[in-house]
Structures are given as C-alpha cells and as structure tokens.
Amino acid sequence: MKIRDKLLLGFGFYILLAAILGFFAYMELRTITTRLTLVEIAGDITNTILEVRRYEKNFLLYKDKDNLQELKNYLGVLKKYIDSIKSEVIKEIGINNYNMMKETISEYEQLFDAIVDNFRSQEKITTSMRAAGGKIERRLTGRELESFLDIRRDEKNLMLYKDQETYDTFIRTLNSANLDRYEEVRRYRILMTRLFELYRYEKDSIDKIRLKAREIQSFTENLSKKERTDIDAVSKRSMRLLLYALLAFIILGTIINMRLARGIATPIKRLEEITKKVAAGDFSERIEIKGKGEIASLGISFNQMGTRLRDAMESLELAIKRLHEKQAQLVEAEKLASLGRIAAGVAHEINNPLAIINEKAGLMQDILQMSADFQHKEKFSNLINGIIGSVNRCRTITHQLLGFARRIDVIVELMDLNEAVIEVKGFLENEILLKNIRVELNIGEDLPKIKSDKVLLEQVFLNIIKNAIDAVEEGGLIEVSTRIKDENTAQVSIKDNGPGIPRDKLKHIFEPFFTTKERGKGTGLGLFVSYVIMKKLGGFILAESEIGKGTTFILEIPIQPRF
Amino acid sequence: MKKKKEIKVLLVDDEVDFVDTLAQRLKMRELMVATVYDGEQALSFIKKIEPDVIVLDLKMPGLHGMEVLREIKQLSPHIQVIILTGHGTEKDEEEAKRLGGFDFLRKPADIDLLVAKIKEAYWEKIERAMTAIAFAEEGELDTARKIIKKEE
Ligand SMILES: Nc1ncnc2c1ncn2[C@@H]1O[C@H](COP(=O)(O)OP(=O)(O)OP(=O)(O)O)[C@@H](O)[C@H]1O
Ligand SMILES: [Mg+2]
Fold it and tell me: Which CATH number does the domain A408-558 belong to among 3.90.1030.10, 3.30.565.10, 3.40.50.720, 3.40.50.150?
C-alpha cells in the first residue's frame, strides 16, 4: 500500500469514527429534544388543567356564567393543546393513552354540560317549590300551618346540605304532618323528591367530574414524569455512549495508527540500517520487498542501487588491481631493462680485462708448447687450459648479454611474421634433425604484414624454439602457430610436449641468469632477452606450463608499432 | 701462405697489455706484427709503412676506431681492417661493414679464429690489389679504384 493511501486510511478512519460519534450524538440529542417538547407540552397541559380545575371549583361554588365561560375557554385551550400534539410525540406517548386522554376530556366536558342542565333544572324546580310552598302556607292555618313551617325549615336544610339524611328528615317531617290530602302538598312532595334526585345526580356528576379531572391531571403528570426520567436515561445513556465511543476512538485509533506507522516506519528503519551498512562498505545486504507501495519501489530502487554500487565497486577494484598489475609489469619491465643495461655495461667493461687474461693465458700456452719438457709442463698446460676455459664461459655470458644490447634501437619495417617463423625454423634445422624432433607450423593465412623489428623478433623465436628443442625428448613435438588475435594484435604460440616447468620455477624463467641447465650449457639469459625485446616492441610474452604435458609460450605483437 | 712473416699486421688498441701480448702470440704464429696505442699513431704509421691487415679497437682515447677506419679506407682502400672490440653493438658492426671493414670480432677472441680472419683478410687484400693493378695496367687506375669501391 502506498504511504499516501496509508495516511489517508488512518485519516479516513478517524473521520469515520468522528462521523459515527457525531451521528450518535445527533440522534441522542434529537431524542432528548423530542422528549423535551413532550415535557413542555405536558407542562402546558398541566397548567391548562390547573386553570380548568380552578374555574371548575369556582363554577361549582358560584354556579355562575362567567366562571363557566372561563372553564369552557380553558377546556378549548386544553383540547387545542391535545390536538396539536405531533404524531411522533403521540407515538411516544402511545396512541391508546392519547385517545384515552382525549376521551376523558370529552367525557369531562359532557359531564359538565350535564351538570349545567342539572343546575338549570334545580333552579326551575326550586323556584316552583318556593312558589308551591308559599301557596300552601297561605292556605293552611293553625296546627297544620305550624307543621308545614317545620317542613319548610327542613326544606331549607335540605337545599343547603343536599344529603340523604336531611332528605330523610324532610320526608319524615312531611309524613308526620299528614297533609297529603291537600293537592298542593302532594305536588310539593313530588317536586322535592325530584329536586333531591337532581341533587343526588349533581353529587354524582361532581364526583365524576373530579375523578375525570384528576385522571387527566395524573395522566399529564405521569407523562411529564415519565418523559423526565426518559430524558434522564437518554442523557445518561448518551454520556456513556460518548464515553465508550471516545475510548474506542482512542484505542482503535492508536492500534490502527500504530500498525500503519509500523507499516511505514519498519521498512524505512530497515532501509536506514542497510544504508548505514552500505555507507560502511557492505554491499551484500538486500531489502525484502513486500507489497508494492512506495516503500516497496524504494526498496527495489535501493536494491538496484546496491547492486550497481557493488558492481561499480567491483569493477573499480578490478580496475585498480589491473592498474597495480600493469604498474608492477611496468616496474618489472623497467627493472629488467635497466638490469639489461647494467648487464650490458658490465659485459662491455669485463670484455677488455677478459681479453687480456685470454691473451696472457694463451701466450703462456704458446710458450709452453714451444718449450722442452720439464717436470710440471703437463700440469701447467692443464692449468692454462682451465683459465682459457673459464674465459670462454665468461665470453659466452658477455656475448649473450651483448646480444640484445647490441642494438639499442628498434628498426621497424613491414614484415611477414610467418616468413620470420619459417626462417627461424630453417636456422635450427640441424638441431631439429639431430634430435629427430617434429616441428609443426600452423601458419595463420589471414595474418597481415605487421610493422615491427624482424631481427629482434627472430631472436625471440630463436631463443624460445631453442629452449623447446632442449626441453623435449628425442622425437618430441613442437608446434609453432601464428594467428591474428584482434585488429591490433598478432599472436605467435610455441608449444612443446616437454616435461613442463614446475610452478615455483615458472615465476623465475624470465629473470636474467635463471637456468636449470647444467653448468656451461645455459646462461639463463635467453628468456630474459626475449622478454626485454617483447617489451621494447610493445608486446608481451607469457608462459603456460603443465608438468608432464609441456609448455606453451605465447607472444603478442602489435601490428602497428606502439612504442 | 707464401713466405714466413709475409703478412704485415698492425694492432691498434689502447690496452697496452692486451696488444703487446696479442702481438707476441701473433708473431709466434708467423705474422709480422706492429703495435700502436691510438688512432693518430695508427694513421701516421700507415703513411710510412703500409700493413696488409689492421686489427683495430673501437673505443680508444682520441680518435674513435670508426674514424680511424674511415681514414684508413681513404688513404689506402685495400688495407683490410678487422675490428676487435669489447664494446661493439650491432649498429657498430653494420657501420664498420659499410665503411669497408673486413670483419667484426668481439673480445675476448679466440686466437685461432683471429689468425684465420687475418689470413682471410690478407688474401682479400691481395685479390683486390691484383684487380686494381690489372685495371692499372690498362692505364685506368682511377677507374679501377672506383670499381673497387663500388664492389665494396
Ligand atoms: N620449453 C621449455 N620447457 C621447459 N623448461 C623451459 C622451457 N623454456 C625455458 N625453460 C626453463 O627456463 C629456463 C630459462 O630459460 P632461458 O632461455 O632464459 O635460459 P637457458 O635456456 O637456461 O639458457 P640460454 O637460453 O641463455 O642458453 C631454462 O633453463 C629452463 O629451465
Ligand atoms: Mg635458452
């Protein structure tokens, strides 16, 4: 995953959590608001009911129109409140409860209408009774009037107390007066009974009204109480929820961010470690590539860089090594060249005294030969021959040394390498025949003429082929091959099937005076001279050898002079 | 070899010890030998007595051997000169041949080889001198000289 994506993921996670939290908080707040409206409505309804009840009490007390009107007004307000309750709130309350409340209110209203009618009837009956009472009082006299006045006292009591006891007393008094033979009294009794009925009915209604009112009241009270506790619960729940959400937010956020951070930081950390190693020169370490984000591609580039750096270092090391080798070769060549110069100089200087020794010894021998025999003549002669023999050995050495020093300058001419090889083979015909050696020439036909020094090259070929002849057994094989190596270089190889050269000796064969040949047979200068000549010509010489199989000398010669 | 000590040899070398000894040995081998120790002496010597063969060193104080050779060849072209030196390079050898030197030997040289070369040189000289005389008899010594030079 890309770093940007990881960061976005982390960020997105936070935004999502915040959104969820916000949503919850919003929902909770909404619930609380709804509940609060309910509480408010409940409050309004309660207040209105309180007003209704105040006027209810007043009306029942005074039975007047004004209070009734107020009561009706407030009832209207109450109904309006109830009607205005929104459907969601109704749902909250419960549709049954709501309908019941509505019904209760209309029952209450009906009861009120009934009681108003009752009051009206009471008023009418009371008026008729009073009128009937007055008429009876005017008709009666004496004892009968007294009895009737008692009745009227009880009548007043009844109108005041309106209860069963007072009514019973009234009826008893009326019965004991025994005035029922009067038609008016009978009417009076009926009216009274009727009034009492109304009273009873009034009492019942009032009780009912009070009951209904209380119902309504308790209903609203319950409603607001319930809502309050609900709100409490909801807010407590919201708080808990918020707390949990916050906790989850922190924990989950930390975990996710830690994972993301590790996802980003771990590979970077690894990169850092490896960078340090690379800085310290260790190119072996590689980053493990996981996924394919920037880190991965960074890792890949880093690995590539590491590989390239290592390659560069390696080729640099190789180049330095080659440089050292070249330098060593140059130093070696220079050393050999100056050694050669010194050797040649020494050879020159030695030649003169050597010549004197040679002549003096020779003269001694001459004189001895002319002399008559004497006691030690033979011995003297041998001694002198010894001196002359040693002089000859010295001469071989100095002449070899001077051989290559004879000509300091290289004379470049257009020459045919193949021709030179064939000529050298010709020089050595005698030795080759003597040892019955096969010399095979593998001539490179496409070899162009080269610009080099024929005399010097022939001397080199001569030295090497002579060595090969010395090395192989009777009947041995020598292969001389010429070929073109590349557009600048010709190659001559001289291969024999002689005994080969041991490793420890191979290192030294180009050094002056290194020889394994018996005393007086080899000077150890042949290869040294060849080496110096090849250097002079801008080419080089090397030897490969395997014990028991033979030795190959390889000469590389520039086609155009390079010196 | 016709007569005893017929061949006149002049040794030119600054190594006194060497020339004297060599002279003795050559005398023993029936050659007529004279010695000088530098180039000037050599040149004044041949103006008085003409040797058949001169054995000449190259590296000497004063006149260099090569100069001496050139002078000799100018003075008497048929005197044969053998260079005997401890210092000669291949280049010297070529130069000597070019100037008409008979041979080029390196010290230390084998006495028998040297004597053989001296004798060869002597016969060479005789031959050339005879040819020259043949031409001279026809009255054309100068032409003869030229031819001799060309042949060289
Ligand atoms: N073809 C070969 N096979 C085996 N050994 C060889 C060969 N060529 C050279 N050598 C070894 O290398 C040594 C050095 O050779 P180099 O030609 O320099 O001297 P030399 O042959 O001993 O003496 P010189 O060539 O001066 O007579 C030899 O003595 C021999 O041991
Ligand atoms: Mg050799």
Answer: 3.30.565.10
Contact of B28 with B6, CB cutoff 8 Å: no
> Which residues lie with the beta carbon below 6 Å from any ligand 1 atom?
A 400, 463, 467-468, 471, 496, 498, 501, 509, 514-517, 522-528, 551
Q: Give the tens place of pLDDT for each residue, A436-451.
A: 999 999 998 889 999 9
- Give the closest of B89, B107, B111 to A405, CB-based: B89
Mutate to test the interface with B, among A352, A396, A398 (most CBs of B within 10 A): A352
pLDDT score of A355? 92
Nearest CA in chain A to B28: A366
Which residues from chain A sit within 8 angstroms of residue B89, using beta carbons?
A: 402, 405-408
Query: How far away, in angstroms, is A563 Cα from ligand 1 center?
Result: 27
Nearest residue on chain A to B60, judged by CA atoms? A352
Which residues are CB-contacts of A508 (< 8 A; sequence separation ≥ 6)? A514
Residue of the CA atom closest to atom 28 of ligand 1: A515
- Give the minimum alpha-carbon distance from B88 to chain A in angstroms, rounded to a whole number: 7
Q: What are phi and psi of A327, to 5 degrees?
A: -60, -45
Tokens linked to A509: 């064969």
Note the pLDDT of residue A388: 92
Q: Which residues of A touch B106 (CB under 8 A)?
A: 351, 395, 399, 402
The domain locations on chain A are 3-140+179-246, 408-558
- Verdict on whether the full-model pTM lies above 0.90: no
Q: Tell me, what CATH number does B109's domain have? A: 3.40.50.2300
Count of domains for chain B = 1
- Looking at A211-328, which runs of residues are DSSP E strands? none
How far, CA to CA in Å, does B52 sit from each of B38, B93, B106, B124?
A: 18, 21, 21, 10
What does the CA dihedral A65, A69, A70, A76 come to, rounded to 10 degrees? 160
Cα distances from A52 to residues A48, A126, A203, in angstroms, run 6, 28, 19
- What's the domain range around B135? 8-148
Give the whole-angstrom CA distance, residue A185 versus residue A381: 215
Answer whether residue B1 shows pLDDT above 60. Answer: no
Helix (H) or strand (E) holding A412: none
Q: What is the pLDDT of residues A320-337, one digit of tens each?
A: 888 887 777 667 666 666
pLDDT at B136: 64
CB pairs under 8 A between A and B: 69
Whole-angstrom distance, CA of residue A148 vs CA of residue A140 = 8
Q: For residue B5, what pLDDT band results from cuts at 50, 70 and 90?
A: very low
The distance of A340 to chain B (nearest Cα, Å) reads 14
Based on its alpha-carbon atoms, the radius of gyration of chain B, rounded to whole angstroms, reads 15
Q: Ligand 1 pocket: which of A517, A519, A523 to mutate (most atoms <8 Å of CB)?
A: A517
Half-sphere exposure of A300 (CA within 13 A, CB side): 7
* A550 CA: nearest ligand 1 atom: 3
Least distant ligand from the CA of A529: 1
The phi-psi region of residue B146 (left if phi > 0; otherwise alpha if psi is between -120 and 50; otherwise beta) is alpha
- Which run of H or E residues covers position B109? none
Residue B84 included in any domain: yes
Are residues A359 and B22, on separate chains, in Cβ contact within 8 Å? yes
Pairing of the two strands B53-56 and B8-12? parallel
Q: How far apart are the C-alpha atoms of B87 and A345, rounded to whole Å?
A: 9
